[in-house]
Amino acid sequence: MGNPSKRFGARYGNRIRKNVDEAEDRTEERCIECESTDVERTTAGVWECNECGVKFAGGAYKSETGAKEMMTKALNTGLEVEELEEAKEQIGDE
Prior knowledge:
By secondary structure, the chain is an alpha+beta fold. The protein has helices spanning 14-24, 67-93, and strands spanning 39-43, 46-49, 55-57. The protein has a domain at 64-94. It contains two helices and three strands, in the order αβββα.
């Protein structure tokens, strides 16, 4: 796709143009059902797969927000804390 922010020329600053490039780059967007890359943003936060027709919620500019990874990490951390507490109790009993 190239560099979509070229249309702005030297205006608006480097950071804003970089953000536009990232937001308009659709190569990593995937459907949550069929894993197709033929995904289109209908409105802010609503995405639709052109192959299977599924509509799903996501981020305003990206179909995946990373919330799944953060939740998995948080849940795994909770399990580790429980394991540490059990180990402390075992050490305290000895």
